[in-house]
Design a protein that fits this description.
It is a single chain. By secondary structure, the chain is of the alpha/beta class. It has one domain: 3-Layer(aba) Sandwich (Rossmann fold), CATH 3.40.50.150. Helix content is 35%, strand content 27%. It contains six helices and seven strands; from the N terminus they run ααβαβαββαβαββ. Strands 3-2-1-4-5-7-6 form a seven-stranded mixed beta sheet, sandwiched between helices. The termini are far apart.
Length: 193
């Protein structure tokens, strides 16, 4: 079974659906906190962080709070999520160091090589074009940068394969949610070339 191409979910992440998702996102607080601490620990001083599929902006807001020296960018395909995330990020980040952009993972609205660390947490299984999205992650990464992906275990197999096919060796670890190993955390860096 390959990557899912059922994208009727989009309506659930915009408008009132975005507000409902934001209110339920607190269930992922522990996952976001652990991921934010990992990101904060590996970001270089004055570095640049990108969160793809940022949703309500919980993760970039937490990274900005932990590392006020870094530039934080979130990207989401839903206009309402961008609105919610922008408001959340504005509460913790200097306006010159935090922004949320409207955009699709298959055509990220960021310059090439501008992310020292990027994340995609529980979003890739929604992407319409997995290969284009993975290629965009690689394009956005700075030389020596790190991509951290957290995905459900089933889709994680396909994501890991796509990352390897794009020239990113992958480190895979079990990630836990609600006391169960239901997620996979993948880390990849573009191969030196």
């Amino acid at each position: 079974m390959g990557h899912r191409h059922d994208h009727e979910w989009l309506e659930t992440f915009d408008g009132e659906g975005a507000d409902r998702y934001d209110s339920h996102a607190r269930l992922l607080r522990g996952l976001h906190e652990r991921t934010a601490r990992r990101v904060a620990a590996i970001l270089p001083r004055g570095g640049r962080y990108l969160d793809v599929g940022t949703g309500p902006g919980t993760l970039p807001s937490r990274v900005a709070a932990l590392r006020p020296d870094v530039a934080v960018t979130g990207v989401d395909v839903s206009p309402r999520m961008v609105e919610i995330a922008s408001r959340r990020l504005a509460g913790v980040a200097d306006p010159d160091r935090g922004r949320v952009l409207l955009g699709d993972a298959a055509a990220l609205p960021v310059d090439t090589g501008t992310a020292d660390v990027l994340t995609a947490v529980l979003t890739i299984h929604h992407w319409v074009d997995l290969e284009a999205g993975i290629a965009e992650l690689g394009r956005a990464l700075a030389p020596g940068g790190t991509a951290m992906v957290v995905e459900m275990r089933g889709p994680a197999r396909h994501v890991a394969r796509a990352l390897r096919d794009a020239g990113m060796p992958v480190e895979r670890r079990a990630a836990w949610a609600f006391g169960l190993p239901v997620l996979a955390r993948l880390s990849g860096r573009p191969a030196a070339g």
